[in-house]
Structures are given as structure tokens and as C-alpha cells.
Design goal:
Layout lengths: L4 E5 L4 H13 L4 E5 L11 E3 L8 H11 L8 E4 L15 H11 L1 H10 L3 E5 L6 H4 L3 H16 L4 E4 L7 H16 L3 H11 L5 H8 L1
Parallel strand pairs: 1-2, 1-4, 2-3, 4-5, 5-6
Helix pairs in contact: 3-6, 7-8
Length: 213
């Protein structure tokens, strides 16, 4: 039996490292290829593709590196972790421009990679975007996560969504900062309720937010 090959987009973050750990546990002989926006090798990966951003042209850039390193396009699974979009306002207030910009990072490159590499399984990360505080705050990110869910439902044998609450990361820290600022000036009833819970918790906001989420 040959060695299975996996492609992880964004391997250095919490989600990417968790994916690597999970793959190593279930497939110890796996050959893991992972991308990063930096020039630093990703921990526990067999091959790191440097300077890769979730943007148009990502697929061609990945293909070029596969060819340069003599790797086959056949991959067992594609794991896609990038998540970046405008937050700090209700999801329903997202403009078409904000939605398109967010999809251009969170979803479109994944769809392009899936089409080119035809993995046995594609895995994306989502959020609990239908919770009251998230609906009131998650902006265009909520649309991207919703569309990822719809994509998974189209072919549930080949696409899966990981939804596991919140863990500490740079992006979650950034979201918590924006949320705390938004709550100070909001009149939205769901955010006001969250604000009251925070103020009665006697915790630092980051600790409160991680526990709450």
C-alpha cells in the first residue's frame, strides 16, 4: 500500500497543527505537505510550501511547488484553514463587496484547489455563526461559513466541516478585541446581553470570551 499524501493550507496555526496531529494519529506513514504565509518550516510537516496566501493564484502557486518538488497531484485529503474577513457588525448587514472579499480568502481558493487536485476528502473549518452574539457581530465571515456548510451538504461523502467552538489563536484574539470595542458602543440587544454577562463575570474579556464561546 502506497504512502498517502495530504495537503494542508495554513499548517502553522492552531487549526493546521491540530490537523497534522490528527493525521499523524490515524495515518502514521502520511506524507504531509503544508503551506504557510511565512518562510519558516511548519512543525511536523514533511514538506512546507513557503509564502502562500489565500488569494487568487494560490492553486497555480501550489501546483508549481508540487512540480518543483516532484510530488504527485494525488492527495488523500485537502484541509483548508484560512479564515479572514470583516467582523464587528451583524451578518445581515454585510455588503456584497465585503462578502466577495471574504469569500476570496475563506472559500474560493479552497474550491479551486479541490477542483485541481480532486482529493478524496476536503475539510474546512466553520463556526457557530447562528448563535445570537455571532449573528450580531460576525459580519461577512458568517456568510463565508454558511456557504462552506452549503458546499459540504452538496457532497457530504467528499466534504466535511469541522466545528469545534473557539480555541485561542491570533485571529480569535483579534476578534475578541473588535468584539469588546463593538460592545462599548452597541445598541444591539444580543450584544448588550453579552456585555452584561461579561461585566458580571469579573474576568478579563479574553478569558470570558474563550469560556463563553
Amino acid at each position: 500500500m502506497g504512502q498517502n499524501q495530504y495537503l494542508i493550507i495554513g499548517g502553522s496555526g492552531e487549526a493546521g497543527q491540530s490537523a497534522i496531529q490528527a493525521i499523524r494519529s490515524s495515518d502514521p506513514n502520511a506524507f504531509i505537505i503544508t503551506s504557510t504565509t511565512t518562510n519558516e518550516p511548519v512543525s511536523n510537516a514533511n514538506l512546507t510550501l513557503f509564502g502562500k496566501r489565500a488569494e487568487p493564484g494560490l492553486t497555480n502557486s501550489i501546483l508549481d511547488d508540487f512540480e518543483k518538488h516532484g510530488r504527485s497531484k494525488q492527495i488523500k485529503a485537502l484541509i483548508y484553514t484560512p479564515a479572514l474577513g470583516e467582523v464587528g457588525f451583524p451578518i445581515e448587514e454585510s455588503t456584497n463587496e465585503q462578502i466577495n472579499n471574504t469569500l476570496g480568502i475563506c472559500l474560493d481558493p479552497m474550491v479551486s484547489l479541490e477542483k485541481e487536485f480532486e482529493p478524496e476528502l476536503t475539510v474546512a473549518y466553520s463556526a457557530f455563526y447562528w448563535l445570537s452574539h455571532t449573528l450580531a457581530f460576525y459580519g461577512s465571515m458568517g456568510i463565508a461559513k454558511y456557504k462552506a456548510d452549503l458546499l459540504a451538504f452538496e457532497n457530504p461523502t467528499k466534504r466535511r466541516i469541522v466545528r469545534a467552538g473557539t480555541f485561542f489563536s491570533k485571529s480569535v484574539r483579534g476578534i475578541s478585541i473588535v468584539l469588546q470595542r463593538t460592545m462599548k458602543k452597541t445598541n444591539h440587544p444580543d450584544l448588550l446581553q453579552l456585555k452584561n454577562k461579561f461585566e458580571s463575570s469579573n474576568e478579563k474579556f479574553m478569558d470570558f470570551f474563550l469560556s463563553y464561546a
